[in-house]
Amino acid sequence: MSFLFEKLEVYQKAIDLAEKIDVLCDAITQKGTCHLIDQILRASTSIALNIAEGNGRWHKNDRKNFFWIARGSTYECVPLLERLKRKQLIDAQTHEKLVNELEVINKMLSGLIKGIE
Question: How large is the average pLDDT for residues 104-114?
Answer without folding.
Answer: 95
